Amino acid sequence: MKRVRSTVAIIATAALLLGGCGGSDGESDSKTFEFWSFANINQKADVDVYTKAHPDVRIKLTEVGSTTETAQALTAALAGGKVPDLVLIQADDLPKFMQSPDNFVDLTTLGAGDIKGNYLDWVMSQATTKDNKIIGVPTDVGGLAVAYRTDLFKAAGLPTDRDEVAKLWPTWDEFINVGKQYVQKTGKPFVDNTPTSVFFQAVNQGSQRYYSADRKLDYDNEQVKAAFDVTLKAFEAGISAKQGSFSSGWTAAMKKGDYAVVCSPSWMLSQMKTNAPETNGKWDIATIPGGSGNWGGSFLAIPKRAKNAKAAWNYISEMQSPKGQLEHFLMQGSLPTTPSVYTDPQLVGKTDPFFSNAPIGKIYTQSVLGIKPFYFGPQDGPIGTEFLNTLTSVEQGKVSPAKAWDTALTNVKNAVRE
Amino acid sequence: MTTMLSPATAPPDLRRPHRRRRIQQGVREFLAPYAYIAPFFVLFLIFGLFPLLFTFYISLFDWDPIGEHRFVGLDNFTELLHDPRFWGALRNTFSIWVMSTVPQLLLALGLAHLLNHARLRLAALFRMSVLVPYVTSVAATTIVFAQMFDRDYGMINWFLGLLGFDHIDFTASLWGSHVMIATMIAWRWTGYNTLLYLAALQSVPRELYEAAAADGANGWKQFLHISIPSLRPIIAFTVVTSTIGGLQVFTEPLLANPVGGLTCGAARQCQTVTLYLYEQSFGQFHFGYGAAVGVALFVIVVAFSGLNYLLATRVRSERP
Fold it and tell me: What is the pTM of this model?
C-alpha cells in the first residue's frame, strides 16, 4: 500500500508542477495595465513621466527584446496566451498584424477618430484597415537624411556646409557623381554600401512600393525597378565600401573613416554615436537625394483580449498627443509623427554636437513632409529582404549587375506565398 | 521482476485465505514500475510527443498563428520539393555537418590519447581546460568568430594580408561561410568529445599500453592498435550524437552573418534547415510551411540516425 501511495504522490506532484504553469497572477484593477515594449529604447523614462503625472496608475512594463522578438512574443500571445494591454509594434511588423485586425481593439471605439488628424496621413494609413478601423497610433517615424564626414569632404575638395552639400545631390544620379569625384580625389570608397544606403532609401521615396494602391501584390513595377537600377548604377560607379549595414566591418570602417557617407534614418543617429564615439563632431547631416523618405517607425496597439483597454488608451492619448511626442523628441530624439509640432521653436532649434550642431529636428521633419502614402502589405518584409539580398550579392561579386533584376524577381517569386 | 517477487510457484490451496491480498499485491507490483517511470513519460507526452504530432498536423495547413487555418493537404510538401531555398539549406547543412564533425572527432581522438598519457603532468588542468569552449556561451563564441573572419578588419584576413595573400570574404562565399561555421562548431564540441573518449580510454587497462611499449610499439602504433579499437562503441555514440546535433545547427548560422537577417547571407549561402524553418515560421509566420520543413528534417534525422545505428552495431559486433 505504501508503495502505491508514494507513486500516487509522485504523479500528483508532477501534475501540480505542470498545472502550476497555468496560474494567473491575481486580479488587475482599473488603474493597472501591462505594457510590452522593445528593449534599449528607454521606454521606462516615458512610463515614469506618465506615472508621475498620474500617481494612481500602475504600469507593468516588460521590455521584451528586439522589435522582431517583441512581434514574435505578441504573435504567441495572440495565438493563445496572456496578452498585454498595450503593445509597441514596429512598422515593418505591423502589416502582418493588420492581416488579422480582429485580434486588436478598433481604436475608433475609444476615440481615435477624433485625434487621427493630428498624425501624418501616410503614417496613419498604415494602421488603418480597409473598412476604416484604426489598429495602432504612431509613436514616431524614421525620416531620412545623409550623414557625411566634414573632414573627409574637405580633404576631397568638396564643400562642407550642409546646405551646399544638399545642393550637390538633389537626385540620386547627382549623388553618384559626387561619389565618383570623391573616389577620384581620395582613392577611398564614398558610401558605406549601396543596398541599404541607396536601395532601401530610394524605394521608400515613391508613391508605390511592393503593392498597388488597391492592395494587390505588384513588386515588378517601374518605381521599384528605378530604385533598383540606380543602386546598380551606384555600385558600378565604384563608390561603395561594400560594408553591410550593422555588420562588424561597417562599425569598424565607420570608426576609421573608411567611408564618408551613410544614409541615415533618424533612429540610426544614436547608433552611430555608440559605434564610433571617436568621430564626435566630424559628422554633419544633409538632405537626402530625392528630398524625402521614411524608414521605420512604430505604433502602439491594444490587443482585443486586453483586460484594461481603457487605461491603455488613456496612456496612448496623453503620451502620443502632439505635445507628448514633442517632449519625447526633446528627451530621446525620436521623430514625432504629429506635423503640428514640426514648426515648434524647440524642435526647430534642436541641434546635435556629434553632427556639427546640425538642426536634426528641422532636417528630419522636412524629409517626412513630402511623402506620398503607399500601401504596406503583409509580405513587404520578405520581398524587401530578397531585393536587398540580391543587391548585396551584386556587391559581393556573386551576381552580375546585368542579371541582378531577373535574379531578384526569381528570388522574390520563391519567397512570396500567394 | 514481478514473478520473482510474488510467490506464484507456491501451491495455491495452502495460500487460499490470502489469495485476494496476494492478487492485490501482484497487481501493485506489476504496476509499480510503470508508475515510477510515469513522470518522465508524462512530461515526454506533453513536451515531446504532443508537439511532434502537432507539427505533423500543422504541416497540412496554411496556418497563420493569429489568423486563418486553411487545410491544404500535402501542398506544403509539394511546394517544399520545388523550393530551391530548401534544397540549398539541405546542402548547406550537410556540408557544414561534414566539415565540422570529421575534423572535430579526429582531433578529439588525438587529444584524448594525449591526455590519457601516463606521464602527463598537470593532467587534471589539461583535461578540464578542453571543456572551456563547451561552457562558453554560443552567442559570445559566434560573435567573436564572426569578427575574426571579417573581410576587412578580421584577424585571419589581417594575417593573410601579412603573408601577401588577398583577403577572403568568408561570410559572402559559400565555402568560406561553411568553413567559418564549421570552425565554430568544432571549437565548441571538440573538448566535449575529447572527454567522452578520455573516459572510455581510462577503462582500458594500463598493462596493455605497457606491454605494447615493452614490445617496442611507439605512440602512434599504440594509438592505432589499442586506443582506437577499445573506443569503438563510444566512437559510434559520438558519431550518432554529432549527426543529430549537426543536422540541427541553428545558433551559429543565425548569428554568424547578422546582416542577412535570418538568411545567413545574401545568397542564403550558410542558411541551415533549422534556420530556414525558423525564418519561415517565426520570421514570416508561415507556420504550416515551417512545420513541413520540420517534418522533412525529422525524416532526414531519423533516416540518418538509423543508418548510423546500423553502421555502429556492425562496428561493435566486429572483434576489436
Answer: 0.82
